[in-house]
């Protein structure tokens, strides 16, 4: 299991911003500009209580000109604030959306390039949740709360400065009455949120997984009459999510405590301010400024607590997303790890089981193949496809393949057979580089697959699985899923080369025939025909067909055999064979039993 890092459902939330920074770096100028404009808007609004306080003193002094000037300044500040705020929101949302857009692209790119094993090791719903819901939540936060968060943080700072410069005595009183209980409440909310939000996100991901699996398996569940069992499992997951969501709500109720703290602080300030004004220590205007600015501060802190609640929730999603990006990053490092692991394994294998040299001389007989079938000259192991001491496990410690060594010469046609679960499909995926071995090496033309360029590999080695996956759309849409830009003419040429033109013509709309949402219109065998046409367009060195286990109608079986026979020329073709008719025709057969090669039937003369 060397090449897979398993994702934790409840992520580590430490240093999330530091981890996210590399993804923000490209947009820092735009974000810096947005934050600056936002802070200017906030500053404009924070100055309003100061001007109102001055206006009150001017009113008490009968200074009409001063009063009118102050009123004009208040008006100007409010207008400036409105315009600046709108501008900053636009800038911030635009910059934030770019970040989210880049993250979304990166997730798609990383998931597309990640080893198959990584995808198989995780529940589809969990990956879906991280790649869609959590990015959507991040986008919603950026649009909805991020501008507020910056404004509110600005209010807290600027209001504090206004309060401190208005009256240090009242400010000291405010500090004593307001700050300690607020600090305590914030700690409580934060702790409760850190406990409950990740658990809520994990429970939601589990529910999504169970739900999406039930949709995928709906036919099987109905056949087995297991819908009830599945529903109760879904109900269990829904109940678990409900409990976690309630606990997260519980964490949020602590926020209401801030109202009580604010009430007490306001009353204390009013009494103290009144006494000081009566004694001539400060003007009435200063008391007014102080009360207005402290109200601003209270409501900012209040709103900030709510937004911070959202921030903590978004932080969990961001941490889960960053985990996904980290786990699917750096394929170079992954393959390097595997290459070294492979070398160790290969050394072990040659020491204990079957050495690479033995494989070519005794077990597999590539010399025979090359000597007789292909070129008439000896082909060493440097040519063709070779597994050397390959070991593989899906779960740590449970080997599915045990030191498999086998070689297929260029142009060879061979079969891999064995009972269900003996490891044929797993070996096929290793042979075409979809899995990396735990130990041992798979080589193509002498080169370790893990060292080859992934895109190049996909053109040189093609696997047609038992169940060829189809996307919603037409036959042409499905044929287009081939490396390179293929045209209608390419589809037609490939079908013609495989003798499938009559079959395509027999479809209602030829290449435009709609195959349904999941290609339901085609049987397993017909889907493999689609796979064969794609393979013909890719023109790989090695083609591996994992024969469909479902019963094939004679017409389709014949078309597959015919197409395969035409594809065989000039390339290595391996068939994971299930049907006796196929096995009988294979010139060379390798039999697997419980992850080991048991017998090797030599090539037919
Ligand atoms: N994605 C997976 N996760 C965990 N275990 C798996 C996975 N795929 C296969 N296995 C297990 O590995 C073993 C070998 O499976 P594999 O599909 O390679 O066998 P097979 O010979 O191709 O079987 P079949 O003829 O039924 O296709 C089986 O025990 C199977 O349960």
Automatic annotation (TrEMBL):
SUPFAM superfamilies: ABC transporter transmembrane region, P-loop containing nucleoside triphosphate hydrolases, Pentapeptide repeat-like
Localization: Cell membrane
ABC transporter domain sequence ranges: 385-605
Keyword terms, alphabetized: ATP-binding, Membrane, Nucleotide-binding, Transmembrane, Transmembrane helix
TM annotation in the entry: 29-52, 64-84, 146-164, 170-189, 267-293
Listed GO CC annotations: plasma membrane
Membrane topology: Multi-pass membrane protein
Protein name: ABC transporter
Lineage, uppermost ranks: Bacteria, Bacillati, Actinomycetota, Actinomycetes, Micromonosporales
PROSITE patterns, per database record: ABC_TM1F, ABC_TRANSPORTER_1, ABC_TRANSPORTER_2
Occurrences of domain ABC transmembrane type-1 (ranges): 39-313
InterPro entries associated with the record: AAA+_ATPase, ABC1_TM_dom, ABC1_TM_sf, ABC_transporter-like_ATP-bd, ABC_transporter-like_CS, P-loop_NTPase, Type_1_exporter
């Amino acid at each position: 299991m060397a090449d897979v890092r398993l994702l934790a459902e409840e992520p580590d939330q430490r240093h999330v911003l530091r981890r996210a920074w590399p993804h923000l770096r490209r947009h820092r100028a735009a974000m810096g500009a947005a934050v600056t404009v936002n802070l200017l808007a906030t500053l404009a609004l924070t100055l309003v209580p100061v001007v109102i306080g001055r206006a009150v003193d001017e009113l008490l002094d009968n200074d009409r000109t001063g009063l009118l000037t102050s009123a004009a300044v208040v008006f100007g500040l409010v207008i400036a604030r409105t315009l600046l705020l709108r501008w900053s929101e636009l800038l911030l949302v635009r910059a934030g959306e770019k970040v989210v857009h880049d993250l979304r692209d990166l997730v798609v790119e990383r998931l597309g390039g990640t080893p198959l094993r990584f995808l198989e090791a995780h529940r589809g719903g969990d990956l879906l949740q991280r790649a869609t819901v959590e990015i959507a939540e991040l986008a919603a936060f950026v649009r909805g709360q991020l501008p507020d968060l910056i404004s509110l943080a600005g209010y807290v700072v600027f209001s504090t400065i206004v309060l401190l410069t208005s009256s240090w005595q009242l400010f000291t009183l405010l500090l004593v009455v307001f700050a300690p209980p607020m600090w305590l409440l914030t700690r409580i909310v934060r702790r409760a949120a850190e406990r409950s939000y990740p658990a809520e996100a994990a429970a939601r991901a589990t529910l999504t997984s169970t739900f999406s699996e039930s949709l995928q398996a709906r036919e099987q569940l109905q056949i087995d009459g297991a819908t009830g069992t599945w529903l109760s499992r879904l109900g269990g997951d829904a109940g678990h999510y409900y409990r976690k969501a309630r606990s997260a709500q519980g964490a949020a109720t602590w926020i209401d405590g801030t109202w009580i703290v604010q009430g007490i602080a306001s009353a204390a300030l009013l009494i103290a301010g009144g006494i000081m004004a009566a004694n001539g220590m400060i003007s009435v205007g200063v008391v007014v400024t102080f009360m207005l600015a402290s109200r601003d501060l209270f409501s900012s802190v209040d709103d900030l607590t709510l937004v911070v609640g959202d921030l903590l929730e978004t932080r969990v999603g961001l941490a889960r997303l960053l985990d996904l990006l980290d786990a699917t990053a750096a394929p170079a490092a992954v393959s390097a790890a595997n290459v070294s692991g492979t070398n160790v394994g290969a050394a072990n294998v040659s020491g204990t089981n079957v050495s690479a040299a033995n494989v070519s001389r005794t077990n597999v007989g590539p010399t025979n193949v090359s000597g007789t079938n292909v070129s008439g000259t000896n082909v060493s192991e440097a040519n063709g496809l070779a597994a050397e001491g390959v070991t593989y496990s899906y779960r740590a410690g449970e080997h599915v393949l045990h030191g498999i060594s086998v070689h297929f010469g260029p142009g060879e046609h061979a079969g891999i057979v064995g009972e269900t679960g003996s490891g044929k499909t797993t070996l096929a995926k290793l042979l075409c580089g979809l899995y990396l071995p735990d130990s041992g090496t798979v080589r193509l033309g002498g080169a370790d697959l893990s060292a080859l360029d992934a895109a190049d590999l996909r053109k040189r080695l093609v696997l047609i699985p038992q169940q060829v996956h189809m996307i919603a759309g037409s036959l042409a849409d499905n044929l287009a899923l081939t490396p390179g830009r293929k045209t209608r003419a390419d589809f037609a040429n490939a079908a013609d080369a495989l003798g499938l033109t009559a079959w395509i013509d027999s479809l209602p709309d030829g290449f435009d025939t709609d195959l349904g949402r999941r290609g339901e219109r085609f049987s397993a065998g017909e889907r493999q025909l689609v796979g064969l046409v794609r393979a013909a367009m890719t023109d790989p060195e090695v083609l591996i067909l994992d024969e469909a286990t479902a019963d094939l109608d004679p017409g389709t079986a014949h078309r597959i055999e015919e197409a395969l026979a035409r594809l065989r020329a000039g390339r290595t073709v391996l068939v994971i064979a299930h049907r006796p008719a196929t096995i009988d025709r294979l010139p060379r057969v390798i039999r697997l039993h419980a992850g080991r090669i048991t017998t090797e039937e030599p090539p037919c003369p």
